[in-house]
Design a protein that fits this description.
hydrolase activity, PLipase/COase/thioEstase, two-stranded antiparallel sheet, Phospholipase/carboxylesterase/thioesterase domain-containing protein, AB_hydrolase_fold, alpha/beta, 8 helices, 9 strands, 19% strand, 35% helix, disordered N terminus
Length: 259
């Protein structure tokens, strides 16, 4: 699982006038059994869809099709302008940091487009690690609100979202946005979200993950589960991935699950 262990920071993108985001190659892990669900999994800062697909291929989830896109390569403010693959730009990982809404919307839209061509009887989900987790959680808020940050409609029917070692962009303003619409309240209450975080994470601090869970719950997301892992840094471990598998199987009602 070196892919997770090689993450050193979590953020990305350029907020300059560059508005055309060129996404990298998408990798697909096809289901070994009956195709019941499709989940997009988003890599962390500086990684790519290939290494993610290799990890997911080994998971005991034969009824899931995994789609592993690669983020655009762009300058990252957090890294002093160094260019690498990143779903959006970030200057600092903190609640007070400015959010790159343009980058977030571009990535969330790209992900939704990938899911929009899946069969109608297949359940759809999004997951990710670190910055990928932040993008997955942002997509969850777009689903609840029925629109992206720029106001364009969000039309994908999400059934599950997983975020490992991540955080919630725009956390402080979420509750007010959700409460403006009864439909947003209903959608937020219907979406299962699993957040996992190690209490020794030195890249995305543990309390950011914990606070993200609380912000989501207080904003009306009633099906949020938060799991903490003692001694875990900014990477994953087999026990965490095993619990992700169990949660996904149960929440999506996959064959063989004990829900």
């Amino acid at each position: 699982m070196s892919y997770y262990q090689q993450q050193h920071a979590t953020s990305s993108g350029s907020r300059t006038a560059r508005r055309n985001f060129e996404f990298g190659r998408t990798y697909v892990v096809r289901p070994k059994g009956k195709h019941q669900a499709t989940i997009i999994w988003l890599h962390g800062l500086g990684d790519n869809g290939s290494s993610v697909s290799q990890l997911l291929e080994s998971l005991p989830l034969p009824n899931i099709k995994w789609i592993c896109p690669t983020a655009p390569t762009r300058p990252v403010a957090l890294l002093g302008g160094f260019s690498c693959t990143a779903w959006f730009d970030v200057e600092e990982i903190s609640e007070a940091g400015a959010d790159d809404w343009e980058g977030l919307d571009a990535s969330a839209s790209h992900i939704a487009n990938l899911l929009s061509t899946e069969p109608t009887d297949v359940k759809l989900g999004i997951g990710g690690f670190s910055m990928g987790a932040a993008t997955a959680i942002y997509s969850a808020t777009c689903f609840a609100l029925g629109k992206y940050g720029n106001g364009s409609p969000y039309t994908v029917n999400l059934r599950a979202v997983v975020g490992l070692s991540g955080w919630l962009p725009g956390a402080r303003s979420l509750r007010n946005k959700i409460e403006e619409s009864n439909e947003a309240v209903r959608r937020a209450a219907s979406l299962p979200i699993l957040l996992c975080h190690g209490n020794c994470d030195d890249v995305v601090p543990y309390n950011y993950g914990e606070k993200s869970s609380r912000y989501l719950s207080s904003s009306g997301f009633r099906l949020v589960a938060f799991k903490s892992y003692d001694g875990l840094g900014h990477f994953t471990i087999p026990r965490e991935m095993s619990e992700v598998c169990s949660w996904v199987s149960a929440r999506l009602g996959l064959d063989g699950s004990r829900s």
